[in-house]
Amino acid sequence: MAAKHLYLIDGSGFIFRAFFALPPMNRADGTPTNAVFGFSQMVLKLIEETDADHVAVIFDAARENFRNEIYPDYKGHRPDAPEELIPQFALIREATEAFNCPSIEMEGYEADDLIATYARLAVEEGAEVTIVSSDKDLMQLVRPGVTMWDPMKNRTIGPDEVVEKFGVGPEKVVDVQALAGDSTDNVPGVPGIGVKTAAQLIEQFGDLETLLAKAEEIKQPKRRQSLIDYAEQARISQQLVRLKNDVDLQVPLQDLKRRELDRDRLIAFLKENEFKRLTARFESEMADEAEAPAEETAPDPKDADYVLVQDKKALQDWVEAAKKAGFIAVDTETTDLNTARAELVGVSLSTEPGRACYIPLAHRDPGETDLFGDSAEGGAPAQIPRDEAIAILKPMLEDPAVLKIGQNIKYDLSILAKHGVTVAPIDDTMLLSFVAEGGMHGHGMDALAELHLGLTPIKYAEVAGKGKNQVTFDHVPLDKALTYAAEDADITLRLWRKLKPMVLEKRLMTLYETIERPLVPVLAAMERAGILVDPQVLRAMSEDFGKRIGDLEGEIHQLAGTDFNVGSPKQLGEVLFDQMGLKGGKKTKTGAYSTNSDVLEPLAAEHEIVQKVLDWRMLSKLRSTYTDALVQDIDATTGRVHTSYMMTGAQTGRLSSTDPNLQNIPIRTEEGRKIRTAFVAPKGSVLISLDYSQIELRLVAHMAGIETLRDAFLDGQDIHAATASEVFGVPLDQMTPEVRRQAKAINFGIVYGISPFGLGRQIGVSTSEAKAYIDKYFERFPGIRDYMDETIAYCRKHGYVETIFGRRIHLGEINAKNPQQRGYAERQAINAPVQGSAADIIKRAMIRIPPVLAHESMKGVAMLLQVHDELIFEAPEDRADEAIEAIREVMEGASSPVVNISVPLVVEGGKGASWAEAH
């Protein structure tokens, strides 16, 4: 059977994460097992949650591979694995096999090469590929049909995320890495060129070879000379970072077909390694399967009492129980994860652990009415009419004497608001966990139930199906819907009873009650408001891109001397390498030529047709990723795009935006700025943008107590020019743009732990010169070094750092034995309090803004978007200026009275017909 969805797990990447994430564990015979245990948990979760029909875990076979023949020092400076980890490598392979999952490795190749090859083969068969990893080296593989999944951050890595990381699309990542090098893998690159500069150069010249051929055109003398002197080193680096996708695999793709778990074999492995909790889970599952069908089991069969509520009398009884208790756990079931598109299907409630109900409101006839008990006319399940049920629930859900508890309750607030219900007061178990243990683990229900309750919740796929066969919840039979939905409310209540005291015990209740919890309704209102998007602007851009794509296609056909499908790798390969006779073609096992970017890019400088093919691909991707996709995201009813904000997506407290991600629209390129012109205000209104100016540098000056920087901010000086004057001894009236740029890089880099080598590459100077700049910086601003040392020392002792408002960001690897892991955690320790404090400040501002906008003079002004340090509003034209001043006042005073920051917070405001004009 041909693969439809291939799931490739980067096993080598998970080994080290597991080892450093868990405390030491040993079997009775003394064998260390912490990495084995962590790895087993991760792999189990991944293979249970995926709908893939082909799965494999890929490992590195050995440190040395064919790249060491190209460059002997490749990865040569990496330290040996920790002693406690070495005996676990073989056990981890055994663990993979115990989960009945193929364990793949090959001498002479890295895991990444095998992943690249399997991904290519699968795409050529028409399959979708998911690479489970966050490794930047794998980002070059992202393309149509291939995405990455970072399970630690619970996010998909697609073209947008690659651009965010490298400044270029996936097809140009190899060239950027070749220039910037990689100190982790000892890839040399070109001295003085970092990722940002490399991206700019590749965008300007198109590819590495063209850049090297035209190096004489570079204006900056040092950069120009480095490119000339180290051209061959860049080419070698390109060979090192480019993944090999034509490995002669020992295990064919078809052998990766997903297999059922062999529980007997798995339990034997778990017992041998003394993993009692995992053993108990699978033994319990086997016992349950022997006694009853799986769908009839509940998370705690002895205690759970789950009931369907199908008449108004029973519903009123639950409402009275909630009033009597003074609290109730609430969860909604809907047809979609996006609140703008979602329809309410049912509500579940729980008043005590093990007791919960499900109130079906909009389930449909599945053609099997016997599953529903008594049925209404036409076979639909017996259920209270939705409007009548809402009328009974509404007084209780709005009752200030009844606390409503939810897991990610922002979603439920938005759903119920569509039916005229304003839910309050609230508690959120996800946010309680995030406040108490941010950075320690995930905060989704599954993770929290496993961690705090020892329960494994029912998966959505178990009741609604997987992949193409998955149905929306309104088509789920009521017996399955009851168990799934009631369990959600039950577990939410149990978690609340565990987590609320934990937050109180850690003295973090103020943070929760003054920042996280009150932000929930604010964000829910912003998500419901959405932002108006002009589809005509997007379509015009799509048409422009389409015209340019069409023109390129015509030119390609003319150069080829024949018409063919440029988007067909098979036809393109035949035209380029057979008909035109271009050198450098490589055939795959299927007999077709590979036309991946790593094959075409080296040919682009010599062959005009190849460059035009690459340009055609770039424009096609830009159109599909942004202009076409955003049109599809416009809500047909409102004409607006409604994003969703993740409150626990970043451990520093920063918000992230999804479905669609409006925080990642490119602004550095001309096309990116054009896309922002499509975000518009309604007729008679304008968009307002208010943005904190250099907030993180201002916080550094305050938190580190740097008097010189404080004075510069207080005097309203150009902070980068002021730094340059201090470090380089250049008077302000003699400042040049180049010197200011170097000072800017130092300002942003040093406080985040940048090394002399990294700074040198970024500003185009030698490592020794960069070191001298850093030494001078610390000499002029000694408080910075003290702040960094004290922060790292605090983190080593406590395991976390704090923002100025008391948010704790846990960094478990701060005491890791591995120097790379430890160094990264140290840089995080320096950065996190600053970024987290900035996130807290804008959150405090967002909470204070709605009461200001409620004033009569602010009628019609609405907060729409948050993009890190920027807030976007919609306002009537005649109120825009007044709104800017009122909102600016709130934002600039957002830290007080809790923290009086010793430098002014400055907010820059603008307005315009579009987001592009306002910013």
Q: Please, how many helices? A: 36
Q: How helix-rich are the residues, as a percent range? A: 40-55%
| Average of the residue pLDDT scores | 87
Q: What would you call the shape? A: globular
* Cα Rg: 29 Å
CATH A-level architecture of the largest domain: 3-Layer(aba) Sandwich
Estimate what percentage of residues fall within beta strands. Answer: 5-15%
Biggest sheet strand order reads 3-2-1-4-5-6
Family: Belongs to the DNA polymerase type-A family.
Protein name: DNA polymerase I
Organism: Marivibrio halodurans
Catalytic activity: DNA(n) + a 2'-deoxyribonucleoside 5'-triphosphate = DNA(n+1) + diphosphate
Can you tell me about this structure?
It is an enzyme of class 2 (transferase). This protein is α/β, with parallel strands linked by helices. The protein folds into five domains: 5-256, Rossmann fold, CATH 3.40.50; 292-506, 2-Layer Sandwich (Nucleotidyltransferase, domain 5), CATH 3.30.420.10; 535-633, Up-down Bundle (Taq DNA Polymerase, Chain T, domain 4); 656-695 and 839-918, Alpha-Beta Plaits; 696-833, 5' to 3' exonuclease, C-terminal subdomain (DNA polymerase, domain 1), CATH 1.10.150.20. The chain has 36 helices and 22 strands. It has a six-stranded mixed beta sheet. A hairpin with a 4-residue loop joins β5 (146-150) and β6. The protein is globular, with a radius of gyration of 29 Å.
What are the salient characteristics of this protein?
5 domains, Nucleotidyltransferase, domain 5, Rossmann fold, six-stranded mixed beta sheet, 919 residues, 36 helices, 22 strands, Taq DNA Polymerase, Chain T, domain 4, alpha/beta
